[in-house]
Amino acid sequence: MTVTVADLIGIMDQIAPPALSEEWDNVGLQVGRKDWPVKKIWVSLDPTPAVVAAACETGVDLLITHHPLWLKPPKTIDFETPPGKIVHQSALHQLSIFSAHTNLDSVTDGINDVLAARMQLTGLVPLAASSRAAGEGIGRVGTLTRPTTLASLVQAIRETSGATALRYSGDPDMAVRRVAVCSGSGSSLMGAFFASGADVYISGDLRYHDARDAEAAGRGLIDMGHFASEHIIVGILAERLRVILKKMSLPVLVAECPLEKDPFVSI
After folding, report:
1. What is the DSSP string of 181-216?
2. Cα separation, 102 vs 192, whole angstroms
3. Nearest by Cα to 220 from 145, 181, 169
4. What is the C-alpha separation between 167 and 214, in angstroms, rounded?
5. Per-residue pLDDT for the chain (267 aa), expressed as one digit of tens each?
6. Is the pTM higher than 0.85?
7. Angle, helices 5-15/232-247, rounded to nearest 10 degrees
8. Most distant CA atoms of the chain, gap in Å
9. Quick check: helix, strand or coil at residue 7?
10. What string of DSSP letters covers 130-182?
11. Do 129 and 251 contact (CB within 8 A), yes or no?
């Protein structure tokens, strides 16, 4: 039985419905053809030149990533630019690239639910409700199973997440019971954090003025880094695909890309 890119797109659309993606996003097939056969899949966070080159060299047929190749349509595809080289190399090796981005952030059991579970949060609700699907949305707000302090929460995240660029803002002794999380870049949802009533906001790419605003409001921020807050989904998504493909008796090998690491290095 020949499994095609279209078959895998159908499976991914069940896992992360494209209707849940934000209007500005670019999800779905980035490069390739739906009728190309698929025997080997890699799952990664980013379609970087190094990841794509390695995928081509090792005979990967479909690369499923969280981040899209680009958010805005390019005016030209110059093979001398990094995105152009990726398109060129992928076409030459019949490698298709597929992205599930904000739809995988928003969906139930997606990245934010996984992140919230790692923080042992219960009673989850979206931090910012989706305008496109009731009950879904970006980020999560929940209650810790056991109240703690900001310093203890930071230490727990350090020990369990593998975050290499962890930083926080706020009184280390402040009591923490209700927590908001947002995978990836969470700065744009600071307003939703304040409105949520959460004591602490955990995300990535938080800014200086975000910390000042939280400080003035007596709240805490934990910036665990963009990579660490999202890469947690790679292994989980790969395993979900393996289970689904096995149930469907589809002969496709699924593996996590072994190359990725946080581009930021702590010193």
Report:
1. EEEEE-GGGHHHHHHHT-SEEEEES--HHHHHHHHH
2. 17
3. 169
4. 14
5. 799 999 999 999 999 999 999 999 999 999 999 999 999 999 999 999 999 999 999 999 999 999 999 998 888 999 999 999 999 999 999 999 999 999 999 999 999 999 999 999 999 999 999 877 777 899 999 999 999 999 999 999 998 887 877 999 999 999 999 999 999 999 999 999 999 999 999 999 999 999 999 999 999 999 999 999 999 999 999 999 999 999 999 999 999 999 999 998 877
6. yes
7. 120
8. 61
9. helix
10. -SSSTT-EEEEEEEEEEEEEHHHHHHHHHHHH--SS-EEES-TT-EEEEEEEE
11. no
The CATH code that applies to domain 5-101+231-256 is: 3.40.1390.30
Cα dihedral 107→2→249→240 (10° resolution): -20
Fold held by 108-229: 3.40.1390
Which residue in this structure is represented by tokens 């009184």? 171
Which tokens in the block code for residue 131? 């305008």
User: Same CATH topology for 5-101+231-256 and 108-229?
Assistant: yes
- Give backbone dihedrals phi and psi of 254, rounded to 5 degrees, phi first: -120, 130
Tokens at 56, concatenated: 């081509």
Residue among 226, 167, 222 at smallest CA distance from 200:
222
Domain ranges of the chain: 5-101+231-256, 108-229
Alpha-carbon distance of 205 to 223, in angstroms, equals: 7
